[in-house]
Amino acid sequence: ATEGRTLQAAEAYRDVFQTALDETNRGHAAVQLGRLYVAEENHRKALACFRWVKISGLAARDERFFFVDFNIGVQRACLGDRARSLAAFRSLLDAHPRRLVEITQLFAQSRLLAKQMEENEGFAEELLATCPELFGMDPSDGATSPAQDEG
Q1: How far is C-alpha 116 from the chain's CA centre?
Q2: Other C-beta atoms within 10 Å of 30: how many?
Q3: How far is residue 128 from each of residues 84, 86, 110, 125, measured CA to CA in Å?
């Protein structure tokens, strides 16, 4: 993929995903395939790849895949599903509170997420309300997520 042979890379990742006996190898292939789809702005297919890692339970069993909720949240934001995007980010923080520094770095380094926040009025404010610890705020200071407000 880094050599510009995206089609060959995608075929290789699909082959590993479909034939690997080791679930971890399938997970890595799914993530890499998802990244290829992101590069081509095919957010639905990227989301499907990242969701497989989550739905399969691999993300919960293997800490190396902790970032998948972040990827899911970014893809949902790109698809205009703000509520589910924010829910994925909240899930990431709730599942991995000890990785706050790493998670904050994911947010800080994501140009795609920054673009979504710039283009979608109110998204940054909703992110602050849903995930205040990303901004150095204590989540118990009264900030609530939209999901908590609803029920």
Answers
A1: 14
A2: 24
A3: 15, 10, 16, 5
- pTM for the model stands at 0.85
Count the neighbouring beta carbons within 10 Å of the beta carbon of residue 139. Answer: 17
- Its sign, for the CA torsion 128, 133, 135, 140, is positive
Q: Which of 36, 14, 35 lies closest to 26, judged by CA?
A: 14
pLDDT in tens, 4-57: 667 777 787 788 778 878 899 999 999 999 999 999 999 999 999 999 999 999
Q: How far apart are CA 65 and CA 92, in angstroms?
A: 11
Q: Which residues have CB under 8 Å from 125's CB, separation 6+?
A: none
